[in-house]
Amino acid sequence: MSRGFLPVTRKELEEKGIWQPDFVYISGDAYVDHPSFGAAIITRLLESQGYSVGVIAQPDWRKKESIAVFGEPRLGFLVSAGNMDSMVNHYTVAKKHRKQDAYSPGGQMGLRPDRAVTVYGNLIRQTYKDTPVILGGIEASLRRMAHYDYWSDTMKRSVLLDSGADLISYGMGEHSILQIAQALDKGIPVSSVTFVPGTVYKTKEAPKKGIVLPSYEELLASRKAYAESFRTQYENTDPYTGQVLAESYGSRGFVVQNPPAKPLTQKEMDRVYDLPYMRTSHPMYEKQGKIPAMEEIQFSITSNRGCFGGCNFCALAFHQGRIVQTRSHTSILKEAESYKEQPDFKGYIHDVGGPTADFRHPSCKKQMTKGICTNRQCLFPKPCKNLEADHEDYLELLRKLRKLPGIKKVFIRSGIRFDYVNADPSPVFLQELAKYHVSGQLRVAPEHVSDQVLYYMGKPEHQVYEEFLKKFQRANEESGKKQFVVPYLMSSHPGCTLAEAVKLAEYVRDMGFMPEQVQDFYPTPSTMSTCMYYTGIDPRTGKEVYVPKSTKEKAMQRALLQYKNPENYNLVKEALLKCGRKDLIGFDKKCLIRPRGGQKQDREKASDFKRQGTEKKDRSRKKKSIRNVHKKKTGKR
């Protein structure tokens, strides 16, 4: 295997004695050879199995010769938009252009196109008509079937059709990409590679087994049909129980999804993360500047993947799956030891985790043989009676990392599930978390305080979060530290009315500080919440759900969470009046904003409010003094 970067030029390829690569990998990200980047994992894994790979990072999509750097690959092109969906990468939830691309050198925007896998796929087809094209990565994974597209506000076809590609390798891809490579290497035509788990393919006829979903035409005609289709897809995301799903496109035939690939075993996951990554960006970017995303992940350790948390606004169920997979302690410690050889390492490990840091085993024993439950969730609305809430393995791992020579601090930043912590009967994890792994602030994600909204989010009731806060406070007191919980909060989620948004604003007021992290709900492809946003239907129940869609209401909900910002005053006032909450406009400490009537009137009212407060304090002091005199005269205490 290569001990340096994979070839990025024809010259570098030929220096290795290779005239035609087996695969050419095209990525929307800059070339970073680090296991936090999907491109690095797939290319290194193929290399470890004897396949040669050339890398074209961020080709100029305006020029078809940009994808011909290595000529035609022997087996096929592999195409990914990068670590993020290109539309999320480019646009805020308000559909405004972002100012920085964290996965490009110097944070430069404009180095990848919108809808990158579609553009790259068509770019390849302009030159190589018959060469196999396989899509992968999160953009293709979450657009593998017909889906709602927020940016165009339309129902779009499977990206397999729009890109001109032959296959999609969805999910994490290690198992499926090797099976695809082996099939192509044996001379099997890509049109006949229809048997690989974790893939999506095109065919003229419906498969003999499986479920036929509503057709694309039906989805265009009926939002209810899409809610039903989404529910069926959601119930078939498990590798053990999932069925073949087929979607008709009329004269174009069918798009067929095979069941997901099996989760990696611990030995397989160790092998993936033990590959000879350079763990940095390619030196060709030195003049352009660093890759911003590297700052946080360079010294962060992936210890698990998959998540049984089941938040409805998260795409993990569709991409990584709900079965937790882990690396061994030996593999993780080996990676931590290797950091000492890197000149930029200062002794701080930024994170040890994954989608949820404290998940180190499947939620129950049956998942690895029988799969996940299709009709219930592990933590919502209450923890399942079969849930194994145990942090012992994670604690042991963190203790080993803390003891390594040269390691000053091990942080946990990828987030913990507070409801899972509450479910653990032992307080030890929370005690050690507070004592060793937090630096002043612990970030967690309650998202909201309204149980109505939390239900649609798939999150636990608010009292569960309050219980966690008390436990964390006790853990801090025991460790002699003064640390705080910083909550992630979300506005405008399906089910959230203006009244619920005001309730959240009152909670923010009572916290005593403005939250740093406020996210307006972002309808990204293939999430339960996005389905609710588009259809107005909760696919779990088939019942209607309120959805804040207007730009004005979404702006009001977000403004309420940052009501102290003077720029938000008019929006906050309008929201409060619309909800009949005029009581929150005034000079009382419970009010969110003060009345405005010109600067002079504001000063007079503020002066009156201050005077009233002073008079109230004077009366209180006078009463207290009278009581004290009475106590002295009567001898009462």
TrEMBL record:
SMART domains: Elp3 (SM00729)
GO MF annotation terms: 4 iron, 4 sulfur cluster binding; catalytic activity; iron ion binding
Annotated SUPFAM superfamilies: Radical SAM enzymes
Domain Radical SAM core stretches: 293-564
Record field: compositional bias (Basic and acidic residues): 599-618
Keywords: 4Fe-4S, Iron, Iron-sulfur, Metal-binding, S-adenosyl-L-methionine
Cofactor(s) the record lists: [4Fe-4S] cluster
Cofactor stoichiometry and binding remark: Binds 1 [4Fe-4S] cluster. The cluster is coordinated with 3 cysteines and an exchangeable S-adenosyl-L-methionine.
Chain positions recorded as [4Fe-4S] cluster binding sites: C307, C311, C314
Biased composition (Basic residues): 619-637
Positions of the UniProt region annotated as Disordered: 595-637
Pfam families (UniProt xref): DUF3362 (PF11842), Radical_SAM (PF04055), Radical_SAM_N (PF08497)
Record-linked InterPro entries: Elp3/MiaA/NifB-like_rSAM, rSAM, rSAM_horseshoe, rSAM_sf, UPF0313, UPF0313_C, UPF0313_N
UniProt-listed HAMAP family: UPF0313
Similarity annotation: Belongs to the UPF0313 family.
Stated name of the protein: YgiQ family radical SAM protein
Record organism: Blautia argi
Lineage, top ranks: Bacteria, Bacillati, Bacillota, Clostridia, Lachnospirales
